[in-house]
Write a structure and sequence with these properties.
About 60% of the residues lie in helices and about 10% in strands. It is of the alpha+beta class. α2 packs across α7, α4 packs antiparallel against α6 and α4 packs across α9.
């Protein structure tokens, strides 16, 4: 059974896609897909219980999807075309479909462990992607091929370990880095307090209280991060900035972060 947070996030995603009928049809199909849900749940089991990492399951994947939807919509409002639009091989909605798929499936590879999980995610996701696109675009093989390929690039590129070239994949890279609030570390911290290598990721994430994604002042997208303690800067400087620096969308991002009650630090 889905958690309250999963259901709430699904509702937000559907609301943000109400003007994009094909993208909405796609997420409604995926939210009812029992196999995808089981895969997301098991990926989280491996991540949290077996490896002691932060949340990499259904809530995280939904949150990355909604982060990406927000960013892509802001770029559209700012008059910036996606890679598919610039290359004249697809529409903005095609790009949105690819981004949503990538957001909801990018960490499926955690079912097999952390190492090279982004590559395993593509392998695990491909049957689901093909099945979903055949349902949503039964008579358009061009759209199925383009969206599938773009989603695969975004999935395999979400760890900054592989060079990516599309704006859409770059958005997923940043959207993933933006899911860093303390909710991701709640369960791992509750399960174990035994010190071990890598704990900085849990404790730094636990210090992040809010991540806002808005229209920017000097650039289209403003990311504003609030934290309860300085340890949260680790998440920005060692995780998020690494992803932003590797993203084709970097030129459209302004980034601010700071401890509650203190002046924000401008990174970009």
């Amino acid at each position: 059974m889905k958690s309250i947070k999963e259901v709430a996030t699904e509702s937000k995603i559907k609301d943000k896609l109400k003007n994009f009928p094909k993208a909405l049809e796609l997420v409604e199909y995926l939210f009812q897909d029992e196999e995808l849900q089981e895969m997301q749940d098991y990926a989280n089991n491996v991540s949290i219980k077996r490896l002691g990492f932060n949340d990499h399951g259904p809530v995280h994947m939904r949150q990355v999807a909604i982060n990406a939807i927000k960013m892509l919509t802001i770029l559209k409002d700012s008059g910036i075309q996606t890679s598919l639009e610039r290359e004249e091989v697809g529409t903005f909605e095609d790009s949105m479909c690819a981004v949503v798929i990538a957001g909801l499936m990018h960490d499926l590879g955690m079912m097999t462990g952390r190492q090279e999980h982004e590559e395993m995610s593509v392998i695990m996701a491909m049957p689901l992607i093909e099945r979903t696109l055949l349902k949503v675009f039964p008579d358009n093989i061009h759209k199925r091929v383009v969206i599938k390929s773009l989603a695969a690039e975004a999935i395999i590129g979400h760890m900054s370990s592989r060079k990516i070239h599309s704006l859409e994949a770059g958005i997923i890279l940043i959207a993933d880095g933006c899911d860093m609030t303390k909710g991701r570390a709640r369960i791992p911290l509750a399960i174990s307090n035994t010190p071990k290598v890598g704990d900085i990721h849990k404790y730094s994430a636990n210090a992040i209280t809010h991540v806002g994604i808005h229209h920017g002042q000097n650039k289209p997208i403003k990311i504003d991060i609030e934290m309860s303690a300085d340890v949260g800067f680790f998440q920005i400087e060692e995780v998020l900035l690494t992803k932003v620096d590797s993203s084709p969308a970097k030129q459209y991002i302004e980034l601010y972060a700071g401890v509650t009650g203190q002046e924000r630090k401008c990174y970009l």
